Each structure stands twice: as structure tokens, then as C-alpha cells.
Amino acid sequence: MASGMLWASRAAACLRISVFHRGFSTVLKDLKYADSHEWVKVTGNAATIGITDHAQDHLGDVVYVELPEVGAAVKQGDSFGAVESVKATSDINSPVSGKVVEVNEELSNSPALVNSSPYEAGWIIKVEMNDAGELKNLMDSEKYSKFCEEEDSKH
Amino acid sequence: MPACIHELFVEFIVSVYHRHHHTYMHAFGIGLTGLVVALGYLMKQKNHHISLPLQLLLPRRFGITDSSFYVCGPALKDIKGKSPSLKFERRKKNTRPGILVRQLHIEEQLLRTSSENWCIINDGTNDPTIVMGFSGKPAELLEIESVLHDQVPVIRRFTGGGTVIVDHQTIFVTFICNKETVPDLQPYPRPIMSWSSSLYSKVFGGIGDFHLRENDYVFGNHKFGGNAQSITKNKWIHHTSFLWDFDVRNMAYLKLPKLAPAYRSARGHLDFICRLKDYMPRSTFIDKTVEAAGTQFSLRSLELEAVVTCSETEFRPSTRFLTNEELAAAAAAVSEQQLGLP
């Protein structure tokens, strides 16, 4: 049992996955996270943005994603689009400021990608950042995991 | 561009509510588009009890022989030492479907720009109006030819959810709350929906086997209330259209939706829905809703001028009418698709 768990945590480390001890929301190690449950993957000045596994799990089946226009400006903490799930529209807020350079058109036909693959195929927008210093306002995977734990335990 | 509230709501009427004989009189004349009775209490969250008197606001009349009244009770609730405040608006019946758009604009603006908690109760709109959710596709949801022929207005609202056709019989109840307002409530669709059903359980108190079923309010397995929400970073809105009564002919404008709840079991509109009036008098429903809200919030009155006015901010609401051209184009696109045309 112990060796099995050790193997699992080694595998998780290789796959850059950290898993809650409760095990039902995934958090990826190399990403940064906003307290409104969006993730951002940064490569140089380029940022890819989506919503986290925690968010998609709590929102329910996504039936529609409202995407911004390419070229639109986004600001850290401000809404740039929305997802619709169940009977609700929920804002998606940008973890960084910059300009939208690409949107995930696949979501127009397959909005459920946000549920099935929130960190990969379900990405929402790509942004050219104008202030990398803002990243310090975001949480790393460990802090975000704790944040989600605290949020869920409060309710 | 929506008009300011002081243009929309020129009269601010409250009179004494008498339990046994209150009446609603006819809606406003030309140039006057509705009433707002804005009642709410602003309470600082302090750890002490405050006793508030029953507050009445005298009407300012503009030669209109109608009245609408609302009584605000000082229901102060000490919940864990805090008393979340709730502002009430009770709006009179209006004369034009544009007023429903304006109500939705106001709701959207309160959601986006107000730091207060709100409850808005509206007594319906005179003309039948179709209200689609955020992502509704007209060709899938509406019998567009009939809608265009009969010139039924179609609104796309800012909240999610399905399509309803509303009229003077409909009662609208809206809650707009800061996300920390309700203790232990996570600001996500299902918890908010569950919270709302517990509030309305107090209203119906076991009448008619009321419960929440797959996001609808039902008596048994018949729907009488449709819900929709919008959730921002710091606030949420939950609004409901209650089918007080309805004209069966209006249901013919709506198609059977593809995304229907499982409990509907492919029933047609008339087998699926029921009338709230068969279960409870209208005034009782509204009174009990206010009472139920009062068990969780403290209610407080405020000046009309304190209500947000649309033109004084840069806020641009997303709720709007769909034009005839848009509806016709949607119908044409479906026809082309069916004929296999590019």
C-alpha cells in the first residue's frame, strides 16, 4: 500500500500534477492561479488562460462559452467572457493584463471541453501580456490547492 | 440607451397595506413607464439589535389614478451577529414590453455596479413577451414565423437558462446578493439554486408538494417557476418568473427545447406547466415571499434618488430585444441548412 502510494506520488510528480488529499480537483504545478479560479500558463510574454478543474466541477456542464474578440484588451481581475452552465452565466476573469491574440474557436462547437479538459483542450484565450510583474499577484499550485481546500471546507 | 430611473419611475408610491383589501389599479399613462417602490434597509453589520418602525412613504402623484403599495416590515435578523441588508423594489405592472428590458437592464446594472443586496418583485408586463436566455438560439427555441407574424417581442437576457413567454400574469422575483451575504453559501449555480428553494419552501410551506426539481420550481412534477442566474466575481443574481396564470395560445410560440430536464419526459407545454394561482392567492404569495426574505435579511427603506440611475454610469447592459431582421435571418439560416444549401 505504502509503495503503491509512493509510486503514485512519483508518477504525479513526473506528470506535474499535484492532487488534493481528497483527490477530486486537479491542480497543475507549472501554472499560476487567480482566486476567481482561472489558470494561466506563461511562456515568455505569451499567456494561455482557462478555468480550473475546481471551477468546472462546481459550475456543472458547460453549454456555451462567450469568447472575446481577438485584439480585445484584457485587464488582470476583470471579466473578459462568460461560461453558461445549468441556468447560470458565470464571468471568466483574466489573471493577466494584455491583448487577446487567439481564442479557442473549438469551444463554440464543443463547450464541454471546458469540463473534460480544463487545462488542455478546454483553454479559452491566449494573451500577449503587457506586464509580467502582475504574475506575482497570482497563486502557485500549492497556494491554490490550499485556497480551494479552505473554500470548500467553509461551506 | 436605457432611460434614467428617475425618468422611468416618476412616482414613488407606498401607502398603507391592509391585509384584507388592497387592490392594484391600472398602469401608467403616456410618458410614464412604471413605478418603483424601493424599499430596503441599510444596516451596518453590527452586533446589536435595532428595532425599526414600520416606514411609510407618501405618494407623489402625477395625475395618475393608480396605486400600488408595499409594506416594509422591520424584520431584523441577527444571524451570527450580522444582519445582511436587503433592499426591496416592488414594481407595478407596466404598459410596454420595453419596460421588461429596462427592468433587466436595472438588474444587470445593480449586479455589476451596486454594492447592496436587492430583492425586486415585479407584477408582470402587459404584452406577451418572449425572454430567451444568454445563449438561446431563436431557430431552435421559437416558432419564428408565428412570432414574426404576430409581432411578439423577443428579448435576450443576460442570465443563463431557458426560454419563457411572460405576460401580465407573470410574477418576477429577483435576488441580487454579494457573495458573502448568505452565510455558508458557495457562489455557484447549484448552491444558489438550493438556497432559493429553501427560501421558497418557507413561502409554500408544504402546499402542492412544492420543491425544486432539476432547477425548476414545481408542484409535484408540474413546473410553475423558471429560474436563471448570473454570477460575477463578487455577486450573484437569481431571478424567477412565476407562472401565475397563462394564455395557452402563447405557448404555441415556443418549441420543445432540445435541452429539457429529464423529468419533463417529453411532455408538451400544457402537460408540463401549471398555474400558481391554483395554489395560492397572488397577494399571499408576494407577502409570504417578503416575509421569507425577512427571515434572512433586514429590510430597509431608502430614498428613490439613492437608487442607481443608468445614465450616470458608463455601464452598458447586454440584455436587448432581438430585431425582426435577426429573427428572420435565423429562420432563413435553418431553412438553408435543411435544404442543404451552403
Using brief descriptors, characterize the structure shown.
heterodimer; A: about 160 residues; alpha+beta; 6-stranded antiparallel beta sheet; 3-stranded antiparallel beta sheet; about 25% helix; globular; disordered N terminus; B: about 350 residues; 9-stranded mixed beta sheet; 4-stranded mixed beta sheet; 9 helices; BPL_LPL_catalytic (chain B); aa-tRNA-synth_II/BPL/LPL (chain B); transmembrane helix (chain B)
Task: Characterise this structure.
The complex is a heterodimer of chains A (155) and B (342). In chain A, β4 (38-43) and β5 (46-51) form a beta hairpin. Chain A starts with a helix and ends with a helix. Chain A is built from 5 helices and 11 strands, in the order αβββββαβββββααβα. Chain A is globular and about 35 Å long. Chain A has 155 residues and is of the alpha+beta class. In chain A, the strands form 3 sheets. Chain A has a 6-stranded antiparallel sheet with strand order 3-4-5-11-10-7. Chain A has a 3-stranded antiparallel sheet with strand order 6-8-9. Chain B is an alpha+beta fold and 342 residues long. Chain B is built from 9 helices and 13 strands. Chain B has helices at 5-8, 97-113, 138-141, 144-149, 189-204, 248-251, 269-272, 282-294, 324-339, and strands at 37-40, 85-91, 118-122, 129-132, 154-156, 164-166, 171-178, 210-213, 216-219, 222-231, 235-242, 298-299, 320-321. In chain B, α5 (189-204) packs across α8 (282-294). Chain B is globular. The A-B interface holds A 36, 58-60, 63-64, 66, 77, 79, 82, 84-91, 93, 151-152, 154-155 and B 133-135, 158-162, 184-186, 188-193, 215, 227-233, 259.
